[in-house]
Amino acid sequence: MKGKLLGLVLVVAGAGLAFWGYQESQTFNKTIAAELTGELDSRTMTLYIAGAVCMVLGLVGLLRK
Asked: Domain residues of the chain, as ranges?
């Protein structure tokens, strides 16, 4: 049961980090910079990657017997 709870917490935290990364990427300055350079800044990418890792680890924890 403890592993399932930790998995759920990781999924929720990962979704929050991914949403935070999305919000960061939608600011005016970052939108203009992304249009000019064609890439996202490192903070936004870090939030996306951390969110994805948390969600994957959480799903593994939830699906484990």
From this structure: 2-63
